[in-house]
Specification:
Helix 1 (7-20) packs parallel to helix 2 (32-71). The protein has a single domain (8-113), classed as Ribosomal protein L20, C-terminal domain (c-terminal domain of poly(a) binding protein), CATH 1.10.1900.20. The chain has helices at residues 7-20, 32-71, 76-85, 92-101, 103-113. It starts with 6 loop residues before the first helix and ends with a helix. The chain is mainly α.
Length: 114
């Protein structure tokens, strides 16, 4: 019996990858082997960076809170310690937003914990 290949499924699989490679530069967009490698690498980066984004934002919030706290005469670690001691449950995202967009409210929080 001759060997049968499922060319319909193979074509569909390749089309799916080539569609994901749309917009890439040079041979990455139209040569199967190059496009397959580029798409695999891109999906790997996407998976990894969904986790890294959380770390990056947390560090950004900490930098913003630290800058605003120091403008009010307190370091970041002192400020966060006193927030916890006074049972003020504001997360870093909210505190950073207040520090940037509403400095008066942030100053009021600092005065309350001092």
């Amino acid at each position: 019996m001759p060997r049968s290949t499922n060319s319909v499924a193979s074509r569909a699989r390749r089309k799916k990858v080539m569609k994901l490679a749309k917009g890439y530069f040079g041979r990455r967009k139209n040569v199967w082997t190059v496009a397959k490698n580029a798409v695999e690498k891109g999906l790997l980066y996407a998976y990894r960076d969904r986790r890294n984004k959380k770390r990056n934002f947390r560090s950004l919030w900490i930098v913003r809170i630290n800058a605003a706290a120091r403008m009010n005469g307190m370091s970041y670690s002192q400020f966060m310690g006193k927030l916890k001691a006074n049972n003020i449950d504001l997360n870093r995202k909210v505190l950073a937003d207040l520090a940037v967009h509403n400095p008066a409210a942030f100053t009021a929080i600092v005065e309350k914990v001092k």
